[in-house]
Amino acid sequence: MEVLVHYTTQEIVYDAFNNEKYKVENTSHRERFKAIDKYYKKYYLSQDNLFFIVRYYEIETSNINFSVGKIFKLDDISYDFIKVSDEIKNNIIINLGLDSSNTYDNGIYYKEYYVDSNESFYCRKLNSNSNKIRLKYFSWEELILDKLPLHRKLIDILFDRDNVLNIASTYCPSRIDLKRKEELLNRKYISSLRKIGFLSDNEIDIENTVLQGDIGEFLMDIMIGKYFESDDENTYVYPKLAIKSNPNMAVYGNDGTFYNIQKNEIYFCESKFDYELKKGLSNAVDSLKAHEKADYDFIESNIDLFRNISNNKIGEIIEITEDVKEKLIIFLTCSDIYTAEDVENVINGSRKLKALKGLNEILVFVLPVLSKEDFLILFKKFSEQKRSGMLP
Questions:
Q1: pLDDT by residue (tens digit) across 337-370?
Q2: SS3 annotation, 271-326
């Protein structure tokens, strides 16, 4: 993702862009308009966000201040600069490294920077044991008005070849014949999509609760894997979807399992894809209580399927010892449009969860999709395009 930065020592420029909205017109400050116009025309077709940053250097104090916003075209002679939230602002500045180094070159007032935006989502901590997963560079207000960028990025995760092979297959990278690698991986990819019901010769049924559950489990394994990946290189995911034999049949047991071999910690996970956050949370707690420790025998018999989330290898774990520390994860994909405070209130107000917390350490993750119905409709459309060969 490309970002345009404007370096200035003029307080009047910073003050103008430090408003919630500022109109940039061709009739005044033409160099500024020219730089933004060139940037917009270069990237607006390929980028979801067009960020513009004003980096103000105060000569007398040597202080550096930033104003970060998005650029929207109004007409041929004007653009709107609309400030983003402090949360998004800080993400952008940190990712660019503008806060920790002097990136200004004398005489260059406009400069483009590249932000690696592969990590589209991040967890916003609500309290010590709950997180709300959000799209990294969008405000909720933007997404409520237009849910498509959120839904597209989620579907990209679900149909990404590496993700599918890691979560829904038992392939091992080191065992692939390099001469036939692409052919084999593509074949395994399509086969895995069919096995979990993301691809079908017939029209997929998005009302099928098994399909919905598998979508939620897939997102859980990927996103929780990212959460653990930055924390420790000794964490493994048990790819439960890889042992599905029929797309219409759910696999018995907890929805997911993560194991840290160094810390000797095992996380049993429950995923719910529901319209309502409260209902999903309640059902997840019931499911965790029902499964309890019944998964151990099943996991032990398939222990070689655990995949190292940092190098994607399988077959590295020999056994899980009896003194392993057990923890729980609840992953909720829901439609509810909630603020972070609302989510925290729902979690803190659950009597069922409090009772379960008295016996276990629990982490709760909430992923709002804002409209389950719209998301599933787009999922179906993408699957059908994939089937008909419209997509690679």
A1: 778 888 999 999 999 999 988 778 899 999 999 9
A2: EEEECCHHHHHHHHHHHHHHHCCCCHHHHHHCHHHCEECCCCCECCCCCCCCCCEE
